[in-house]
Amino acid sequence: MPRAGLTAERLTLAGAELADEVGFDQVTVSALARRFDVKVASLYSHLKNSQDLRTRIALLALEELADRAADALAGRAGKDALAAFAGVYRDYAREHPGRYAAMRMPLDPRTAAAGAGVRHARMSRAILRGYDLAEPDQTHAVRLLGSVFHGYVSLELAGSFDHSAPDPRETWPRIIDALDATLRNWPAS
Question: Which candidate in 97, 107, 118, 154 could, as Cys together with 111 as Cys, close a disulfide (CB 3.0–4.6 Å)?
């Protein structure tokens, strides 16, 4: 019998909060049970296992970021849209490092197709329409943006830029400028 007050949604959100506090790799059903001061078995009426919990957290994070990005992109185009999208991505990763890590979790094709990752791809392509890129260059550009955003954010979260000048806050807008210039001057195939 399910414990009163516990739902899959509540457990997923608590798992996401736990991921932000201790790291996504530390999130398990056992750790979540300790958070609610319940026996592990009481959570299995809501969650299949730790993998199910981790998948739910990944989907939640993708959805949260997609919602933020959609709001930030509304009415923007070109470099302004690129900067807004990049800023939301970076801010989310800094605010929610565990959820950000969850978004990198491999999902099976069916789960991925039903999640907000599809929205992320559509938004990336919408930004690129302002740069007039045709396929396959558009796909290459989506991969470039994802690689740069993820690479910079991952290094920043790891503290890799803390030991040298200039301040990373000065570097980020320069990266956006460089991406904008690259997209405006995309090399011919």
Answer: 107
Quickly tell me which residue has 């798992």 as its tokens: 15
Q: What is the pTM of this model?
A: 0.91
- CA distance linking residue 55 with residue 111, whole number of Å: 9
Tokens linked to 22 = 């201790």
How confident is the model over 169-180, as pLDDT tens digits? 899 999 999 999
Under a CB-based contact definition with an 8 Å cutoff, are residues 72 and 61 in contact?
Answer: no
Q: What Å distances lie between residue 82 and 19, 32, 63, 74, 178, CA to CA?
A: 28, 37, 19, 12, 11
Cβ contacts of 87 within 8 Å, gap of 6 or more: 72
Q: Where are the alpha helices (H) located in the chain, listed in sequence order?
A: 8-22, 29-36, 50-73, 78-95, 97-103, 109-114, 117-129, 137-157, 168-184
Looking up tokens 């049970």, which residue turns up?
A: 33
